[in-house]
Amino acid sequence: MSRAGDDPHRAADHEHGSELSETQLRVRALESILVEKGYIDPAALDVLIETYETRIGPHNGARVVAKAWVDPDFRRWLLTDSTAAIASLSYTGRQGEHMVALENTSGVHNLVVCTLCSCYPWPVLGLPPVWYKSAPYRSRVVADPRGVLSDFGVELPPDTAIRVWDSTAEVRYMVVPMRPDGTDSWGEEELARLVTRDSMIGAGLPRRPQDVRR
Amino acid sequence: MNGAHDMGGVHGFGAVMPEPDEPVFHADWERRILALTLAMGATGEWTLDAARFARENRPPADYLSKSYYQIWLAGLQQLLVERGLVAPWELAAGRSLWPAKAVRRTLAARDTTRLLERGGPTDREAPRPARFKVGDQVRARNMHPATHTRLPRYVRGHTGTIARVHGCHVFPDSNAHGHGEDPQWLYTVSFRGQELWGAEADPTVTVSVDAFEPYLEPAP
User: Thinking of the domain A57-211, which architecture would CATH place it in?
Assistant: First the structure.
């Protein structure tokens, strides 16, 4: 599995075709066993899926970042007591119990990974994308972060300090990217549209004002 | 354990391939296994640390040939069988053939949102003072337990600096194996890239891990 195209962490995600895959059948069988035994309330499954498919996602984190960009008191709070500041916007709970927000500056770029599994700040970013959980990212970002950034089309100045944060315990990290130039007159809601998921992991930069229609 | 999951610094996996406009799930069964895993986790029959160990504790070739959610499926099946909640022949038959075992809790739909919003904080009262403070030089121990640990191989034996102190947290190495929470001080330890990867490595890079106190010793 030397090339990404052969990587089962990607390929198996595309096995759904017209026929039901073996995995699909196994999961379906497991679900019926667990429901039949009364271990699981099927209605709870619907709530769980709906929560992570529609309600919780990077739009939450984008609101946190945009607020930090316009409100210096909130920014300070976010950087010193991230969990409480984020909770003030009602983003709390599972996989975000202990948050640390990391601020990018002109001299420092932060990048987040979980080399051991897939730890990720769910309440602010939702479930992680496939690339974040993939072997190429987890293996390489701690040794060659500039190489990984170039896979995302991001080139940083050679003297920018790069800090990689490996999420090996229950602390969850999010990056506060730099506010794009030319947005002085922008309000919080408009700014949130510039904040991408990848920019809050550190693998990307925010959109520029010219990239979005006001 | 020194498993295939511990990927930091491994070569040969190729380029990162971001997917434009990626959906949250790529197949319906991924939705189902995520929800099944969370709902069964809420029964309290095992800890999150035990679930992580169940996912990582498999032959490297098996780990690397499965997609992320296939690993979740395999991990969940293993926990269910280990705990006697589902028999292997039931998994093979695809239906329940045996009376259910009592579980501590069943997650009800009406409680689900509150449970997710509360989460499972892992900070605990400190049983003893912290051994290290911000700025201290520490060495990650050269240790290779065959059981669950959260100290990745690429930092073992290397010297870094305590960058943050997070208080005491549930110790995964103990909690994953039913030996209790055994709270330990948790630190962010930052390592220079060149300390980890050699003199040819990018001098602008630092890498940090969150390390429990038993993983660390004072730098020599």
Answer: Alpha-Beta Complex (3.90)
Pairing of strands A108-113, A161-166: parallel
Q: Give how far A52 is from chain B: nearest CA, Å.
A: 8
pLDDT digits (tens, 9 = 90+) for B9-37: 999 999 999 999 999 999 999 999 999 99
What is the pTM assigned to this prediction?
0.95
| Nearest-by-Cβ selection for B68 from A9, A140, A158 | A9
| Partner B contacted by A84 (CB < 8 A) | no
Question: Phi and psi of B138, rounded to 5°?
Answer: -130, 160
Helix axes B68-82, A22-36, angle to 10 degrees: 40
Burial class (CB in 10 A: 0-12, 13-18, 19+), A90: exposed
Which domains are seen in chain B, by residue range? 28-118 (1.10.472.20), 123-218 (2.30.30.50)
Q: Which of B52, B152, B166 has its CB closest to that of A166?
A: B152
Read off the pLDDT of residues B109-164 as tens digits, 9 standing for 90 and up.
Answer: 999 999 999 999 999 999 999 999 999 999 999 999 999 999 999 999 999 999 99
In angstroms, the CA A204 to CA A198 distance is 5
